[in-house]
Amino acid sequence: MKKIGLLLALLGALAACAVPADEATAALAPGRDARLTLYTSHKQAVYGPIVKEFQEETGIWVEVITGGTNELLERIAAEAEQPVCDVMFGGGVESLCAYESCFEPYACAGADRLREGLRPEGDAWTPFSSLPLVFIYNPKLVEPDQLTGWADLIDPRWKGKIAFADPTVSGSSYTAALTLLSCLPGDDWELLEQFAANLDGDILADSGDVVGAVANGSRYLGVTLEETALKGLGQGAEIAVFLPAEGTSAVPDGSALVAGAPHAENAKAFLEFVQSRDVQELVVSQFSRRSVRTDVHDPDSLPPVEELDVIDYDVHWAAGLKEEFTARWLALCGEERA
After folding, report:
1. Do 114 and 83 reside in the same domain of the chain?
2. Quick one: CA dihedral 327, 328, 329, 332, positive or negative?
3. Does residue 191 form part of some domain?
4. Which residues, in sequence order, are CB contacts of 208 under 8 Å at separation 6+?
5. Taking a C-beta distance cutoff of 8 angstroms, is the pair 281, 295 a contact?
6. At a CB cut-off of 8 Å and minimum separation 6, what does 89 contact?
7. Which of 76, 229, 283, 295 is most buried (CB neighbours < 10 A)?
8. Is 87 within a domain?
9. Full residue range of the structural domain in which residue 272 is found
10. Secondary structure (3-state) at 71
11. Is residue 43 in some structural domain?
């Protein structure tokens, strides 16, 4: 009995000295000067290795908050009076341009090594990777000679057979919709109406669902980023890739320094890191993406950029159209999701 009593007394003393789990975690975190809050729309497979390496090299502790591009940008705007985020990492640059007032210009040390057309006027954001749009189709359901490109998206024979994610949520789908408007002749809003009608209410909730929907045969064709299509092929997805005859866009995704960032110097260090040659080599070797630097070459497995027939996509026009586009899209499609 005495032994049991002694044991209970010892456990009670230990419990009295214990620190709650959340307090213990906070105690292990570094001081305020060695922290960074990152909002990112990238998948964990992309941001994970980069954040890990950044923390190891700099000793800066990174808190990562994930979400959709538009969701996170709206959050940054709502927090403008008392910023929480230091860096927005990810999102098409037309989306970043639409929230330009929330960011502080910053030019990385290697900005002079950026590929032509990728450095923004005024350095409102920093490009991370170049992301061409491509078409995919299910080779069991579609013959290659049946498809041409953007015109197929408004062709009634493909009604209800197109894999496309909600462009009011997905940054890449918004880019795809505006690339369609840029590549086809006619009134922009009439084209959008035709396209929305051709989707026949079958709108995917996430751009990551496009490859799977085409591969499983629930859709015949779709539009996605080149990197997403290549990853799908690498994982054995039943898809084929083709480049649209009318040309395509290769809009970069980017990063931006939040105005009034609580840890501005650490934020600048992160921006320098993601545009460094080492990380850009990682972009090419592990992420199936194209680098934004002239001294980092695209892998041989990708078609030369000349074959893409990249159009002159005006990101400021796309950013300025976002509000009206969203209103018109919701009027055409409402909240429908597949």
Report:
1. yes
2. positive
3. yes
4. 43, 165, 228
5. no
6. 38, 39, 40, 41, 42, 47, 128, 255, 270, 274
7. 229
8. yes
9. 35-130+251-303
10. helix
11. yes
SS3 call for 132: strand
According to DSSP, the residues that pair with 89 across neighbouring strands are 40, 255
Q: Provide the whole-model pTM.
A: 0.80
What pLDDT does 308 receive? 85
Pairing label, strands 103-104, 250-258: antiparallel
pLDDT over 60 at 36, yes or no: yes
Say which range, 109-118, 171-180, 301-310, has the weakest mean pLDDT. 301-310
Which pLDDT score, from 0 to 100, does residue 96 have? 92
Q: Within this chain, do residues 136 and 123 fall inside the same structural domain, yes or no? A: no
The answer to whether residues 155 and 77 belong to one domain is no
Which CATH number does the domain housing residue 165 bear?
A: 3.40.190.10
Say if residue 269 is in the same domain as residue 323. Answer: no
Q: For residue 300, what pLDDT is reported?
A: 78
* Residue 2: how many other CB atoms lie within 10 Å: 6
DSSP-derived pairing of the beta strands 87-92 and 35-40? parallel
3-state secondary structure of 220: coil
- pLDDT band at residue 307, thresholds of 50, 70 and 90? confident
For residues 138 and 169, state if they share a domain. yes
In a domain, 14, yes or no: no
Give the pair of three-digit tokens for residue 46. 């992309």
Count of domains for the chain:
2
The band of 14, judged by pLDDT with boundaries at 50, 70 and 90, is very low
Question: Residue 258 has what DSSP assignment?
Answer: E
Residue 242, class by beta-carbon neighbours within 10 Å (0-12 exposed, 13-18 middle, 19+ buried)? middle
Q: Do 62 and 178 lie in a common domain? A: no
User: Cα 136 to the chain's mean position, in Å?
Assistant: 19
Q: How many CB atoms are located within 10 Å of the residue 1 CB?
A: 5
Q: Looking at the structure, do residues 79 and 110 belong to the same domain, yes or no?
A: yes
pLDDT for 16:
39
CA distance readout (Å), 121 to 118, 198, 294: 9, 37, 18
Q: What is the pLDDT of residue 22?
A: 38
Contacts of 281 (CB under 8 A, 6+ apart): 291, 296
Instruction: Identify any residues that bridge with 137 across adjacent strands, giving them in sequence order.
Output: 221, 240
* pLDDT on residue 29: 61
| Pairing state between β 162-163 and 250-258 | unpaired
Strand partners, 253: 92, 129
Is the pLDDT score of 90 beyond 90?
A: yes
